[in-house]
Automatic annotation (TrEMBL):
This is UDP-N-acetylmuramate--L-alanyl-gamma-D-glutamyl-meso-2,6-diaminoheptandioate ligase. Belongs to the MurCDEF family. Mpl subfamily. GO terms for molecular function: ligase activity. It comes from Thiomicrorhabdus marina. Pfam families: Mur_ligase, Mur_ligase_C, Mur_ligase_M. Keywords: ATP-binding, Cell cycle, Cell division, Cell shape, Cell wall biogenesis/degradation, Ligase, Magnesium, Nucleotide-binding, Peptidoglycan synthesis. Residues 313-434 form the Mur ligase C-terminal domain. It comes from the Bacteria. It catalyses: UDP-N-acetyl-alpha-D-muramate + L-alanyl-gamma-D-glutamyl-meso-2,6-diaminopimelate + ATP = UDP-N-acetyl-alpha-D-muramoyl-L-alanyl-gamma-D-glutamyl-meso-2,6-diaminopimelate + ADP + phosphate + H(+).
C-alpha cells in the first residue's frame, strides 16, 4: 500500500512515516521546512520528501493521504486532496489502525516530561530484552531514532493532548487506547486550542475513559489538576509516584543524579545516571512503575536506568569553547524552564555563571499567555538573554526579572550580544522548541575562534 504524509517533517508525523516504511508501506511525504534530526531519520529510512506546495503525489494514486495537525483548510495540498476525493486520515488514526491494534500500548501523557518518560520506558523494556516499538517526540540517545516498529506486544507512545487534525479536534491521545497509562502532570498550555484548564482536563478524562480495568494508571500524588481528572471517574487501578507515594525516592545527590527507589517503602535499588533535576527523578519513578506493570521485575527496571543515556535536546551538551559550555534544551513552558535551570544550577560545579538563552516560540508563548509568569521561571539563572520576534505583539515584563536580561530582535543581534557578554566558566543553556536559527552551533563556532 502507498501513503503520502502531509506535514512529514514534524516529530510525530516523521515517526509515523518511519513506522509505515518498516511495516512495508510505500511512503512519501511533503512539508515546507525540514531539518535534523527528522530530515536525517527520513533520509536514512529512504523516504522521499517533496515541497509543501507540490500536489503531484496525487498522480501516484496513494491508498491514503495522512494529514498532520499542522495542516489546515486553504493550504494547497489539503485542498487538492479534498478536491480529488482522496481517502485521508489523521496521523493518530492511522497509527491506531495500522500499528497499535493488538499491541500492549504504554502511553505517557502530561504537560511536561512526556518525551523523557517515554524514552525511559522504552529503554527499560529494551534493556529487559523485550524489543518494544515506540513513537517518541524526541530522539532517545539509547536508540538514535524517534520511532521503531519493534516486536509484539509492547509499544510506547508519547501521548500528546494537542488536537488531532483540522477535521478531528479531539486530543491525539484518545486514539491510542493504552493498557498502561502514565499521567505525568497537568498545567494550562496550548492556549491556541484550549480556553481553560478545564478544557484540558476534559480531554485527559477522555483518555482515562479508554484505559481498561486490567490496565494501570500511574500518576503523581501531588498534582491537584490530575486529582480533578480522576474525580470525574476512573475504572482502572492507580499507582502513585512521589514523596511518600506507592513509588518513592530518596535523593542521594542534591542534583538528582543519584537516588534510591522504593515500592511501598521496600528498597529496590539505586539509580546513578547522567540526568539531573527532581523532575527527572519523578519521571523515572513513573517509567519504572509502567514497566513493572508490563512484567519487568522491579529491581531490573531500576537497574536499567543506570544505562539510560538521555534524550537529544534535553540538556544536551553541544560543545565547549573558551571554557564556556553550551547546552541545548527543549524547554518552552515556564515550569519546564524552571525545572531545567534548577537541575543545571544544582549540577554546576565550576563556580561559573548559569546563563539562560530562550526563545518563547510556542503558540501559547506567542500569544503572551505566560508573559507574566516567565520571569520567576529564570530565578536560578545568573543572566538571561531572550530573542523576541518583532512581529509578536507583546512585551516581556523586564522589571520583574531578578537578574540582568537582554532582549534581541534578531538572531544576529542575540549572537553578537552573547559573544560580548559570555565569560570563561559560564554554562549556557539555550532553550526553544524550534531550531532557534541554529544559534547553538553558531555560538560555539564564534567562541571557538576567540579561544
Amino acid at each position: 500500500m502507498k501513503i503520502h504524509i502531509l506535514g512529514i517533517a514534524g516529530t510525530f508525523m516523521g515517526g509515523v512515516a518511519q513506522l509505515a516504511k518498516a511495516k512495508g508501506f510505500t511512503v512519501t511525504g511533503s512539508d515546507k521546512a525540514i531539518y535534523p534530526p527528522m530530515s536525517t531519520q527520513l533520509e536514512q529510512a529512504g523516504i522521499r520528501v517533496s515541497d509543501d506546495e507540490d500536489c503531484t503525489f496525487l498522480q501516484q494514486a496513494p491508498d491514503c493521504v495522512v494529514i498532520g495537525n499542522a495542516k489546515s483548510r486553504g493550504q494547497t495540498t489539503v485542498e487538492a486532496t479534498l478536491n480529488a476525493q482522496q481517502v485521508y486520515q489523521s496521523g493518530p488514526q492511522w497509527l491506531a489502525e495500522n500499528i497499535l491494534q493488538d499491541r500492549w500500548v504504554v502511553a505517557v501523557a502530561g504537560t511536561h516530561g512526556k518525551t523523557s518518560t517515554s524514552s525511559m520506558v522504552a529503554w527499560i523494556l529494551e534493556d529487559a530484552g523485550l524489543n518494544p516499538g515506540f513513537l517518541i517526540g524526541g530522539v532517545p540517545e539509547n536508540f538514535g531514532v524517534s520511532a521503531r516498529l519493534g516486536a509484539a506486544p509492547f509499544f510506547v507512545v508519547e501521548a500528546d493532548e494537542y488536537d488531532t487534525a483540522f477535521f478531528d479536534k479531539r486530543s491525539k491521545f484518545v486514539h491510542y487506547h493504552p493498557r498502561t497509562c502514565v499521567l505525568n502532570n497537568l498545567e494550562f498550555d496550548h492556549a491556541d486550542i484550549f480556553d481553560s484548564i478545564e478544557d484540558i482536563q476534559r480531554q485527559f478524562h477522555h483518555l482515562v475513559r479508554t484505559v481498561p480495568q486490567n490496565g494501570l494508571i500511574v500518576m503523581p500524588n501531588d498534582e491537584s489538576n490530575i486529582d480533578d481528572v480522576i474525580a470525574m471517574g476512573v475504572w482502572t487501578p492507580i499507582q502513585t509516584q512521589g514523596d511518600k507515594a506507592d513509588w518513592s525516592y530518596k535523593l542521594l545527590a542534591e542534583d538528582g543524579s543519584k537516588f534510591a527507589v522504593s515500592l511501598q517503602n521496600e528498597f529496590l535499588g539505586e539509580v546513578n545516571w547522567p540526568m539531573s533535576g527532581l523532575h527527572n527523578v519523578r519521571n523515572a519513578l513513573s517509567a519504572i512503575a509502567a514497566t513493572v506493570h508490563c512484567g519487568v521485575p522491579p529491581k531490573i527496571a531500576v537497574d536499567a536506568l543506570n544505562r539510560f543515556q538521555g534524550i537529544r535536546r534535553r540538556m544536551t551538551l553541544v560543545g565547549t569553547a573558551n571554557d564556556i559550555e553550551i547546552y541545548d534544551d527543549f524547554a518552552h513552558h515556564p515550569t519546564a524552564i524552571a525545572t531545567t535551570l534548577a537541575g543545571a544550577k544544582h549540577s554546576q560545579e565550576n563556580g561559573g555563571r548559569l546563563i539562560a538563552v530562550f526563545e518563547p516560540r510556542s503558540n501559547t508563548m506567542r500569544m503572551g499567555i505566560h508573559a507574566e509568569t516567565l520571569p520567576a521561571s529564570f530565578n536560578d539563572a545568573d543572566a538571561v538573554f531572550a530573542f523576541i520576534d518583532p512581529q509578536w505583539d507583546w512585551q516581556l515584563p523586564l522589571t520583574k526579572f531578578s537578574q540582568p536580561i537582554s532582549v534581541a530582535r534578531s538572531y544576529d543581534d542575540l549572537l553578537n550580544e552573547l559573544q560580548k557578554q559570555l565569560q570563561p566558566r559560564d554554562r549556557v543553556v539555550i532553550m526553544s522548541n524550534g531550531a532557534f536559527g541554529g544559534i547553538h552551533h553558531k555560538l560555539l563556532a564564534a567562541l571557538s575562534v576567540l579561544s
